Amino acid sequence: MAAFLSNLRNVVIAGFVLAAIVLAIHWQQVGVRVDTGFWMFFIRWLHILNGVMWIGLLWYFNFVSTPTTPKIPEDLRPALGKYITPAALFWFRWAAMGTIGFGIVLAWLNGYLIQAYTLDSLDSAGAFSNPAYLMIGIGMWLGTIMWFNVWFVIWPNQQKALNIDNKFSDLSKEVKAASAKTAGQFSRINTLLSIPMLFCMAAASHLP
């Protein structure tokens, strides 16, 4: 068991296998249904998986890594910037991409993509007639802003600050420090936005 648990790939594969077993049990009860409803569920599941990875890492950076780094002895900090943070940023940015991508596909499959992104101003039933579309639209816009910040502000600045892939070795310490500050500020902005974003996502389906 210890050998199995020490291998992340095996653990993840086993997790998906268990999910497939749960699906098989469900199908045993209701019959196999690979229809539009199933694919909508499947896309939603992928959207949630990516979202958990994205927001989890965002909160790891802001609640754990950033506050703890100043307490780490200076001779140990290079390991964090050279190995741990770049690896976390890889999963962070691609989870953001997966979350926004599957979220857009899900909204399209459910038939409210336009209503959501226009904050229900374009609705065949009448502008601003559906509070759920307005709520999910606010959440989608907050998520889109957060995605933009990850890919076009946080990631480029972290590349410079940490000299990821050794592409910015000629930058001065001042420039790297400024890049790190910018990345940190926008990471905090995303942390701020993540709270109302998650509220809107939950409220759209469950708030009376």
Give the arrangement of secondary structure elements.
Blueprint: H1 2-5, H2 8-30, H3 36-68, H4 77-109, H5 113-117, H6 131-162, H7 173-206
- The count of β-strands is 0
Helix content: over 70%
Distance between the first and last residues' Cα: 46 Å
Q: Which overall shape is indicated by the principal axes computed on the Cα atoms?
A: flat
- Uncertain parts: none
Averaged pLDDT: 96
Q: How is the biggest beta sheet arranged?
A: none
Helix/sheet category:
mainly alpha
Q: What integer value in Å does the Rg equal?
A: 21 Å
Number of domains: 2
Tell me the fraction of residues in β-strands, as a range: under 5%
Order of helices and strands: HHHHHHH
Number of helices: 7
Overview of this protein structure:
This protein is mostly helical and 208 residues long. The chain folds into two domains: 32 residues; 172 residues. The protein is 79% helix and 0% strand. The chain contains seven helices and no strands. Helix 3 crosses helix 7, helix 4 packs antiparallel against helix 6 and helix 6 runs antiparallel to helix 7. The radius of gyration is 21 Å and the shape is flat. The mean pLDDT is 96.
Question: What tags apply to this protein structure?
Answer:
208 residues, mainly alpha, 7 helices, single chain
Could you give a short description of this structure?
The protein has helices at 2-5, 8-30, 36-68, 77-109, 113-117, 131-162, 173-206.
